[in-house]
Each structure stands twice: as structure tokens, then as C-alpha cells.
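user: can you give me the structure for this one chain? C-alpha cells are fine.
assistant: on it. calling the predictor now.
[tool input]
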Amino acid sequence: MVDVREWSRSDTARFLRAPSDADDKYSRGVVALRTGSDAYPGAAVLGVEAAWRAGAGFVRYVGSGRAADAVLARRPETVIAQDAGRSRVGAWVIGSGTDAALRTEEETTALREILADAAPVVVDAGALDLALGAAAPFVVTPHAGEFARLRESLRLRPADQSPESAAAEVAAALGGTVLLKGARTLVADRDGVVLSVRESTGWLATAGTGDVLAGVIGALLAACPEAPVAEIAAAGAWLHGRAGRLAAGVIGTEVAGQGHPIVALDVAAALPRAIGDLLS
């Protein structure tokens, strides 16, 4: 039996707070990203940008090549390394801007080590195939096509039930949290609870916004280490949707209405305003 619950602004606000005098960059959350590739370096930039804009105190990018160069050029405050070493990490984001078919054995080993550790992980795009059996708390973030392939890999029948039931079925099979992206985002935990997030706009249907979402969730996971992963994922989806609406001019302007086109970096840039509105 699936338990569907609507996710709201007030639900999201519970996971946001203004830093106090007692905070430092570590207590505000350390996010590490192993994302992007030479083919898709922009995914790394977008995820890193979003993590910073969503309030992370420290962001580490693990990678090299074009992606690392692009991250450093855009966000020089980011620490770049070829591995995380013994550094403290509050949450990971992996897979955005990568292709599992092109993944090296070395990369697969590194990703599996992340998924075997204790820090929560946002699993996107080219790392989705590695989530099954993960020891770390995790949330997978597929779009509709990736979701269908994920179901196939789990040997689940084609989804002829409701989207909520289908998401809950995959979450139970994986043993983690599933965030099914769409105009209405569904976040299912492995116990059959599905959180429905309606804060969105059609203008978010543009390349790279999923990479931004992954970075937002990573920042919130790092800042709220004791919170349930599914609730953090829903909060990240709501915040991402609100930022998209603000960026597109759907809300928050004197001429708010149907809005206008945006790009993914516009969504990241609107995150501080979305957070400020919630904190107020």
C-alpha cells in the first residue's frame, strides 16, 4: 500500500536555517561531487554551482580534465582533487554528466567505494546502475527514460500502475530513495511513503536543471545529517522548483505570470533568493 503525501513550503522550511556565530564552513555542510566528464563538463559546473548557492559551507570537486578546469574557472572557491582522500564529506553527488557505458574500471571502483561508505549519496545519470546494494543512504534521481531503464535492470514489469506505486516499487527493490523527476516530482522511500512535490514550472524543462537539482539535494543532505533522505530530497525538489519559478518570472515579480525561458544557471542563481524567502 502506497502512502502519498503532499510536500509543502512549510515542510521544506524545516530543513533550512540561517548560520549562527557558532557555525563554520564545516558545520554548514561539506559536499563532494564526482560528476561531469570531458564530454559533459557543464554537468560538473552546474552541480557545484548549485551546491554553493544552496548554502554549502565547503564544496569539493573530485575529478580532472575539462570538467575540473571548468569548475575552477566558474567557482574558484571550490577545492579540486583527484580523490577525496581522508577529507570529511557530509554528502556526495555522483554520476551527473557521465555515461555508464564509457565508465572505466577505475571509476567504477571509486564510485562503489563512495556507495559503500557512510555519507549519503545523490546518485544521478551515469551512476544509477550502481545503486543496488549500496550501504550508504542514497537517493537516485532518474528522469522518465532513466526510470524505465532502471526498472528493466531490476527486472520489474513495465509500469502499468500509478506513477506513485511504480516509484515506490523501485525504491523497495533498490533499498533506498527514488526521486522521479517531472512536472510533479515524486520522492519514494523503501517503506512505501511517496512525497509529491508540485512546486515547479514548465520552464524547468531544459538541459542541465537536473544537474542543479542534484547539487541542491547534496547541499541539504550535508547540512542536515540526521534528517531522512527522502524528506531532504523532497525539500531539495521544492527549493529547486521555487528557484525555477523565480528565475522564470512566474512568481516574485511585478509582472509575474506565464514567465519566460531560462537556462540551468539561472535556476542556481535564484536559489539564494528562494532560500531567503523561506527563511523570512
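assistant: here you go. Strands lie at 3-6, 30-34, 58-62, 79-81, 91-94, 121-123, 138-140, 177-180, 185-188, 193-197. Residues 101 and 126 are 8 Å apart (CA to CA).
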